[in-house]
Amino acid sequence: MGEEPNRLPTVTLSYAQTLDGRLATATGSSQWISCKSSLVRAHELRARHDAVMVGVGTVCRDDPRLTVRLAPGKNPLRVVVDSTLRTPPSAAVLSDGAAGRTVLAVTGRAPRERRARAERLGAHVLRLPENAEGRVDLRALLVALRERGIRSVMVEGGAALITSFLREHLADRLAVCVAPKLLGCGIEAVGELGIHDLGGALLLEEPSVTVCGTDILVEGEIYYPDDPA
Ligand SMILES: Nc1c(N[C@@H]2O[C@H](COP(=O)(O)O)[C@@H](O)[C@H]2O)[nH]c(=O)[nH]c1=O
């Protein structure tokens, strides 16, 4: 059977949270929530995807490298969703010598001089339409990535990007690492989805639950009850 040419890349949301659903403390401290075995597994998952994606807030807070280092395998394309291009030139994704494997997804609100600077560093700046909130239109981003041959995307966060993918029904799979820790107040993994009764809850279809080191991994396909069958 041939591949559907218009199919959007498969999107997997993958993140580590505490038992009480936090990605980080209220001050943004998140390294590390998961145990070493889960970190290895996260790198294995990166290697199985064509692209790994984060929001610019995560870049500014964590300065991730988004490479495969703890497992064998190829580095995926790195994609930063960054409507006004706030990624600093010193960020690892622009300064580690592999900026040619970094896409900055921006809107028309990204100042020209910042775009030129990122391109001089070797990054690909992808100018995309904005949504009603002035942020990058995620569907347009997925279409643009598909045109570049990307068939699978692993979205690592942060909370705003995770929430947007769920709200727009653009996430296909969830792979959540739950660490046996409690933080109380902190950054919640998933924000407002506009669900007012339990019948509207997003579900994981046939989820798998496995233990990884001291963490619990929950994975499955996301079912959106409001979507037409
Ligand atoms: N805090 C947290 C994760 N955070 C994710 O890992 C990124 C760091 O990537 P890198 O610099 O390549 O190691 C970070 O920006 C965020 O996307 N991942 C996990 O498996 N477990 C954790 O506890």
TrEMBL record:
Q: One GO molecular-function annotation for this sequence?
A: NADP binding
User: What keywords are assigned to this protein?
Assistant: NADP, Oxidoreductase
Q: Does the keyword DNA damage apply?
A: no
According to the entry, every stretch annotated as the Bacterial bifunctional deaminase-reductase C-terminal domain falls at 9-217
**Pathway the protein contributes to:** Cofactor biosynthesis; riboflavin biosynthesis
Keyword ATP-binding in annotation: no
Coiled-coil regions listed in the entry:
none
* InterPro entries for the chain: DHFR-like_dom_sf, RibD_C, RibDG_C, Riboflavin_Biosynth_HTPR
One Pfam family of this protein, by short name? RibD_C
Its name, as the record gives it, is 5-amino-6-(5-phosphoribosylamino)uracil reductase
Task: Show the taxonomic lineage.
Answer: Bacteria, Bacillati, Actinomycetota, Rubrobacteria, Rubrobacterales
